[in-house]
Amino acid sequence: MDGLDAMETVRAADRIIHDVGAAWMLDPATPERGKQAGYDNPYAFYFAGRAGVLGDVDAGVVAAALGWFPAPVVRLFWDEGVAVAGAREAARRYGATCAAWGRDHIGDAGGERLCELAGRVVDAAEGSGLPLFCGWRAEPLADDVPARTAQLVHVLREWRGALHLVATTAAGLAPLEAVLAGSNEDRARFLGWRGDLPDCSALKGRRAEAEETTDRLAAAVYERALSPAERAEFAELVRAVGAAALG
């Protein structure tokens, strides 16, 4: 492969980045490590750990930054989680769990080169309107390659997720509308939405518009961060990490 354009890079890498990031958060070992770190409730560990980079803020701020969850659910588990050791310490412990998962599942896939290229993408991203991404970008990375790879994949996933939240808002979609227009009701239930859910099938066009905007915003960063040859290399290394971590 001689090179990739920026949009080809989005299509080749971003889904794998999403899936690898989801794999460590949903791995049964993650809440078990959370319990060892003092969080008996895995949901409290998730919300306080993932959003702890925002600092000592009200749960309403967390709900705005995360986007897809019902605000009462966020408040319930955020307040419980930060009561354990505070917000920033929760993020530190959550990041350490990500690093440990990388050591268990990624090994040398991707290697130093992926860390270098991913770091350049992360550094090139504009952070305006992306507080959760910026919070994770500011966190220190582990020294060893498997752990650092997992952490950088997590940061890239937060970047894509934050861009998508901006894009769905720009398309005029509330979080629940975006979820329901893009998938079935099961996804909304998984995220904590209860009661009667609205029919959002008429909003699928807006959801598609938001996906296109997200891709375009991500592609602009790949364009300025990496050359065509580096983008192809980045995509291949991301695929290697996906193969190692996802099987």
Task: Name the descriptors.
HTH_67; 13 helices; EvbL; 0% strand; 247 residues; globular; mainly alpha
Topology:
Blueprint: H1 6-26, H2 29-36, H3 42-51, H4 59-66, H5 71-85, H6 87-105, H7 111-124, H8 131-137, H9 145-170, H10 175-182, H11 185-190, H12 204-225, H13 228-246
Q: Kindly name the structural category.
A: mainly alpha
Question: What's the domain count?
Answer: 1
Helix content: over 70%
Averaging pLDDT over every residue, what do you get?
96
Question: How are helices and strands ordered from N to C?
Answer: HHHHHHHHHHHHH
Strand content: under 5%
> First CA to last CA: what distance?
23 Å
Shape: globular
Detail the poorly predicted runs. none
Description:
This protein is an all-alpha fold and 247 residues long. Helices cover 74% and strands 0% of the residues. It has 13 helices and no strands. The chain has helices spanning 6-26, 29-36, 42-51, 59-66, 71-85, 87-105, 111-124, 131-137, 145-170, 175-182, 185-190, 204-225, 228-246. The longest helix is centred in the middle third of the chain and has 26 residues, at 145-170. The chain is globular and about 50 Å long. The mean pLDDT is 96. This is EvbL.
What is the gist of this entry?
The chain is built from 13 helices and no strands. It has 247 residues and is mainly alpha-helical. Pfam families: HTH_67 (PF21863).
